[in-house]
Specification:
Layout: E1 2-9, E2 15-22, E3 36-40, E4 47-49, E5 80-87, E6 101-106, E7 112-114, E8 118-120, E9 125-127, E10 134-136, E11 139-147, H1 149-152, E12 158-164, E13 167-171, E14 207-216, E15 220-229, E16 236-244, E17 251-254, E18 258-261, E19 271-278, E20 286-294, E21 311-314, E22 317-318, H2 324-331, H3 334-348
């Protein structure tokens, strides 16, 4: 996340500062109710929020009036927000202008830590909409803000369950993955006083991701992914799912989700981003897709849980995964299932 502030001449001999927020994170959004930005400058501890989408046209500037910021990889056009403020006694030359201090960014809660403002040379140039006029800023600063789920002190927001065609057992989300049912103080109640309002489940996660190994062909294998929304107060209109699995370098078909390869390690492609719309809560509030992978003989196996994902993220947050020993136990029945099927066929013949 980069915050860019540029100061130039305003109207009537005053000055104006244009502040832009760039969400360079590939798959983390800033969701409703939106961001707020603060710093220490001429006035102590101001806090700024974006204008609403219905703001009159004569009060808007480019990239304003969104409130939320989408991730750069999913929607780069909506990953930038800007606003303009009038500046008072901030200095009269490039050498006397003082940089803002102590930037804070909430999106909408804590989690972002911002560094010191760094001067950018040459300063920003602003081009008018008709392209006939260019305005040179006196000075431009950049501030980089980094997100940490540890700093945010957030409970997990998603969990993963697993199943396969070769085992009748379904490995559910670990109990109390995101919280526990509040049935001690209020028996029969699973409702927390804190948002989001999550429906009563053993895992108490707003989002559950289910990975099902569906079919095994001679040269391909097939996976079904289901994302279920258990949050009664949230429609995830711009969600994304990041999945890490070593066979993503040979994915051939994604049947309903949008897919983008992330290539976090350059030549090694083991991570993909999936995205779609999820607007309903509850058991009917789910979206599904199937992925078709080409087998790589050098690594493909159903043994020791290889067919299951290594890590899954929903909207940038790491999801709670089942324990590794459960994955191993689920895959150990594969040889038994195959030999049983062969024996049955031989008896029929």
């Amino acid at each position: 996340m980069v915050v860019a502030a540029s100061e130039d001449e305003g109207g009537l001999g005053g000055k104006a500062a244009v502040v832009s927020i760039y969400n360079y994170q590939k798959y983390r959004h800033i969701q409703a109710p939106g961001w707020n930005l603060g710093w220490m400058w001429a006035k102590k501890d101001p806090t700024f929020v974006d204008l609403l989408p219905g703001t009159p046209y004569n009060m808007q500037i480019a990239n304003c009036c969104k409130g939320v910021l989408n991730s750069w990889l999913q929607d780069p056009v909506s990953a930038v927000a800007s606003f303009q403020i009038s500046v008072g006694r901030s200095g009269t030359t490039n050498y006397t202008v003082k940089a803002p201090l102590n930037f804070t960014l909430k999106a909408p809660g804590p989690g972002y830590s911002c560094g010191v403002a760094q001067e950018v040379k040459p300063p920003t140039k602003f081009i008018s909409q008709d392209g006939r006029r260019t305005t040179q800023a006196h000075v431009t600063w950049n501030v980089t803000c980094m997100y940490s789920q540890f700093v945010a002190q957030r409970a997990p927001t998603c969990c993963v369950s697993l199943s396969s065609f070769y085992n009748e057992t379904i490995v559910n989300c670990p109990q109390c993955s995101c919280g526990c049912q509040n049935n001690i103080t209020r028996p029969g109640s699973c409702t927390s006083s804190l948002a989001p309002l999550v429906q009563c489940t053993p895992h108490m996660c707003p989002i559950r991701v289910h990975w099902h190994v569906k079919l095994n062909y001679r040269e391909y294998w097939r996976v079904k992914i289901t994302v279920t929304n258990w949050n009664c107060r949230m429609n995830y209109s711009q969600w994304n799912l990041v999945v890490q699995h070593p066979n993503f370098d040979k994915v051939t078909t994604i049947f309903s989700f949008n897919y983008k390869s992330l290539n976090p390690y350059g030549v090694i492609n083991d991570t993909g981003m999936l995205c779609d719309l999820l607007t309903v809560a509850g058991p009917d509030g789910n979206v599904q897709s199937e992925l078709l992978f080409r087998k790589d003989p050098s690594m493909f196996t159903f043994d020791k849980g290889w067919a299951f994902p290594r890590r899954i993220y929903f909207n940038g947050d790491s999801c709670v995964m089942p324990p590794p020993d459960v994955l191993k136990a689920s895959s150990l029945v594969l040889p038994i299932a195959i030999w049983t099927a062969l024996l049955f066929l031989s008896l029929r013949m």
